[in-house]
Design goal:
Structural class: alpha+beta
Shape: globular
Distance between the termini: 26 Å
Radius of gyration: 22 Å
Strand order of the largest sheet: 15-12-14-13-18-19-17
Number of helices: 16
Mean pLDDT: 95
Number of strands: 20
Bound molecules: flavin-adenine dinucleotide
Largest sheet: 7 strands, antiparallel
């Protein structure tokens, strides 16, 4: 059983009882207060303690989401939007209790406008589901967090992944949204037009709002054509710094890599063991190029030269599609490979992002810090964006180890901020990064964010306990 946040509740047992009655009457078996289901809807993929909601409801339409939010708002009971629960910073925990709105049954692909390169989807559609659907039309949606996350959750966390260096993040690939606000009203944030100067950009306000401003009920996404040619390769380096120097030189040279990912030696070792690879256990870049046959060959050749200039190489190709898939599957499984390094340990998946010019320095200092602290902590990163992850695997029952890890995380964020970076490039704030928001944005910007939250959610029922520091 998990912590249900008994102490932090702002509503009475009578209020909760009334919400239970109304939801049970309206949604029947699509509403449950069963302990097992509630536990599954807490944040379980994080080292933060799980906090289960009081109940879980499965709407099938936007109108049903609006009904649920109104019922909860009537009784000041929190609502926690839920996609697939892969958020890594305690995003779907319910520190004040409340009702988890599981969007998995809202998984229709509403429309694909191939001629406009966009698709309209319900929030529970997952990225793999969408790409399977689009493949026959020669289109794809590029944002690829390692998990098969929901599009609603990805929009809500402003997610990205390995392709962001070429195609951008959810911020760049969401054209518009529909959402249910805290009072049950439904808004559409924009049209399908590729650009607009009409008023405040509510799309980008909701992208990254982590369920604290509304429940996203529909997303219009930008699509891309599947490139004529795709080639992938790997390139070893003696140090992470040399690999990062090659990344910086590659991006600065204007080479349009589609993916450029760093795995440190420990992560390569983990990937070898977990994914049955046989790579040299040294810092490694995984790359992918998209374009015409001639274009990708040219790009790869140019990269090989840059890597050699930085002391790396040889750059070797994965020529067959199945080899390419094997490599990228191994990369996408990095979290699970890392976790397998220490059976019984808990993964602390964290990320920071710095301006590209500071990447090599930031990774090298982080490497030194890991070694001095003595943590088991592989590094893996979307380094083309200056974004990297460290995954300490710790014994959460050992207070000394937990303290050492917390101090390390603090130093990692402080270092990134001092270099003009951010405390999170893609995972979001959730519960885990709340304490850094003031240092990153300053008092005045944080006050502006609080004012927006207050205006749109005056009762504070939308996913409370996230983003804002206490
Ligand atoms: C193995 C692994 C690898 C990962 N790799 C990456 C990566 O490369 N890049 C990356 O960005 N992330 C990565 N993540 C983190 C995670 O997959 C993303 O944060 C993802 O966007 C979360 O989507 P979800 O559907 O699981 O959302 P959930 O975890 O269910 O929810 C996340 C947040 O979004 C809110 N939310 C969910 N649905 C809605 C909705 N319809 N309306 C409003 N708010 C909503 C929730 O309230 C919560 O605050 C990884 C996670 C794992 C486990």
């Amino acid at each position: 059983m998990v912590d249900s946040g008994e102490n932090a509740r702002r509503y009475t047992a009578d209020d909760l009882g009334l919400v239970y009655d109304r939801l049970a009457t309206r949604f029947g078996s699509r509403f449950s207060t069963g302990q097992a289901l509630r536990d599954q809807h807490a944040s379980v993929l994080t080292w933060l303690p799980p906090q289960a909601p009081d109940g879980v409801v499965f709407p099938e339409s936007e109108a049903e989401v609006a009904e649920i939010v109104r019922v909860c708002a009537d009784h000041d009971v929190p609502v926690i939007p839920y996609g697939t629960g892969t958020g890594l910073e305690g995003h779907v925990n319910a520190p004040e209790g409340g009702i988890s709105i599981d969007t998995s049954r809202m998984n229709a692909i509403v429309a694909v406008h191939a001629e406009d390169l966009d698709a309209v989807v319900q929030p529970g559609v997952t990225r793999k589901q969408l790409n399977d659907y689009l493949r026959d039309q020669g289109l794809f949606f590029p944002i690829d967090p390692g998990a098969d996350a929901s599009i609603g959750g990805m929009a809500a966390t402003r997610a990205s992944g390995t392709n962001a260096v070429r195609y951008g993040t959810m911020k760049d690939n969401v054209l518009s949204l529909r959402a249910v606000l805290a009072n049950g009203e439904i808004i559409a944030t924009a049209s399908r037009a590729k650009k607009s100067s009409a008023g405040y950009d509510l799309t980008r306000l909701l992208v990254g709002s982590e369920g604290t401003l509304g429940v996203i009920t529909e997303v219009t996404l930008r699509l891309h054509g599947i490139p004529e040619a795709i080639s992938a390769g790997i390139c070893p380096f003696a140090t992470e710094k040399a690999a990062c120097d090659a990344v910086i030189a590659t991006i600065q040279s204007g080479l349009a890599v589609a993916r450029i990912e760093l795995l440190d030696a420990l992560m390569v070792k983990a990937a070898n063991a977990y994914s049955g690879l046989d790579l040299p256990e040294t810092p490694m870049l995984f790359l992918e190029f998209h374009g015409s046959e001639a274009g990708v060959a040219e790009q790869a050749e140019r990269f090989g030269e840059i890597a050699a200039d930085c002391g790396g190489g040889p750059f070797s190709w994965a020529t067959k599609p199945e080899e390419r898939t094997k490599l990228w599957t191994a990369r996408h499984n990095a979290y699970w490979s890392g976790a397998a390094l220490r059976p019984g340990g808990r993964s602390v998946a964290t990320d920071v992002c710095v301006p590209l010019s500071r990447l090599a320095e930031c990774v090298a200092e982080t490497r030194r810090d890991i070694d001095e602290t003595g943590l088991i902590a592989p590094i893996v990163g979307h380094v083309g964006d200056g974004n990297f992850h460290v995954q300490p695997i710790i014994d959460v029952d050992d207070p000394r180890e937990v303290r050492a890890c917390e101090a390390f995380l603090e130093r990692m964020v402080t270092r990134a901020l001092a270099m003009g970076g951010t405390c999170t490039g893609e995972h979001g704030v959730g519960q885990g990064k709340r304490k850094y928001l003031k240092a990153e944005h300053g008092e005045a910007a944080l006050a502006a964010m609080r004012a927006i939250k207050q205006a749109l959610d005056p009762k504070g029922i939308m996913n409370p306990g996230k983003i804002f520091p206490d």
